[in-house]
Amino acid sequence: MSGKSFDPSNSASLDDPVFVLRDSLGALAIQILSTREDFSKMSYEQMLRELLDIIIKLHTAYDQAHL
After folding, report:
1. Upper half-sphere CA count for residue 19 (Cβ side, 13 Å)
2. Using an 8 Å Cβ cutoff, are 41 and 50 in contact?
3. Residue 2 has pLDDT above 60, yes or no
4. First CA to last CA distance, the chain
5. Longest CA pairwise span in the chain (Å)
6. Tens of pLDDT along 10-67?
7. Cα separations (Å) of 37 from 12, 15, 31, 43, 61?
8. 20-35 exposure pattern, b = at least 16 Cβ within 10 A, e = fewer
9. Does residue 8 have a pLDDT over 80?
10. Helix 25-36 and helix 44-65, axial crossing angle in degrees, nearest 10
11. What is the 3-state secondary structure (H, E, C) of the chain?
12. For residue 13, how many other CB atoms are within 10 A of its CB?
């Protein structure tokens, strides 16, 4: 699943799309949580628990799609 511009020997080339997806899961989790909850009404502990739950689900989906 390599992108057209991916070249592992060239540090200036674009990253392989599968790695970009993997590295974006945390940001995606925050976006998902922000659509579900009002951050101003959540404690930091609650935010972290919710983010962890979302990240676990995203990792499971990622693993199932890329085995």
Report:
1. 8
2. no
3. no
4. 12
5. 47
6. 777 787 888 888 899 999 999 999 999 999 999 999 999 999 999 999 999 998 987 5
7. 38, 32, 10, 11, 22
8. ebeeeeeeebeebbee
9. no
10. 130
11. CCCCCECCCCCCCECCHHHHHHHCHHHHHHHHHHHHCCHHHCCHHHHHHHHHHHHHHHHHHHHHHCC
12. 13
Residue 1: which of 24, 25, 17, 22 has the closest Cα? 17
Amino acid identity, residue 4?
K
Residue that is written with structure tokens 């540090």 in the block = 11
The answer to whether 1 and 15 are in contact (CB under 8 A) is no
pTM above 0.85, yes or no: no
The CA distance from 18 to 47, in Å, is 27
